[in-house]
């Protein structure tokens, strides 16, 4: 199908406007997001129990809560009891709702005697890049 000059111009402008609107919306959303690192130290003897509780809480939150956007949990290779979690919430309201959910409260109760140290660090997302799932 060949497009004449007017139709090509219209298509180009439509795509450009859509891209601009989407980019501005994305930038505005990033400004209101809560991005946090949770640095956690766990009792090494109870690491498996902690990891199971964490995975259940993360999966439940992402599945049930619209405002929970991202969870990544990683363990230090040399000391797996040192865990860092990247959490991204749509906004402050989403975070406040999250910490009041039954699944989060269940997680906190399950790990209260397993976590030996917790540091929450609010950070600013500079950028993100991911490959689409194949």
From TrEMBL:
Keyword flag Oxidoreductase: yes
InterPro entries per record: ABM_dom (IPR007138), AI-2_Isomerase_LsrG (IPR050744), Dimeric_a/b-barrel (IPR011008)
Residues covered by the ABM domain: 34-125
UniProt-recorded Gene Ontology molecular function terms: monooxygenase activity
Keywords, in A-Z order: Monooxygenase, Oxidoreductase
This protein's record includes keyword Oxidoreductase: yes
PANTHER family: ABM DOMAIN-CONTAINING PROTEIN, QUINOL MONOOXYGENASE YGIN-RELATED
Name of protein: Antibiotic biosynthesis monooxygenase
Source organism per UniProt: Mucilaginibacter gilvus
Source species taxonomy: Bacteria, Pseudomonadati, Bacteroidota, Sphingobacteriia, Sphingobacteriales
């Amino acid at each position: 199908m060949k497009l004449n000059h007017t139709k090509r111009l219209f298509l180009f402008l439509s795509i450009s406007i859509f891209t601009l609107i989407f980019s501005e919306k994305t930038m505005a959303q990033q400004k209101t997001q809560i991005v946090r690192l949770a640095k956690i130290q766990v009792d090494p003897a109870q690491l498996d129990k902690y990891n199971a509780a964490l995975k259940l809480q993360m999966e439940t939150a992402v599945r049930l809560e619209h405002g929970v956007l991202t969870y990544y949990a990683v363990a230090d290779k040399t000391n797996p009891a040192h865990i860092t979690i990247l959490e991204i919430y749509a906004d402050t309201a989403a975070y406040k709702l999250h910490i009041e959910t039954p699944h989060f409260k269940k997680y906190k109760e399950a790990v209260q005697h397993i976590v030996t140290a917790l540091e929450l660090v609010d950070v600013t997302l500079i950028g993100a890049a991911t490959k689409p799932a194949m």
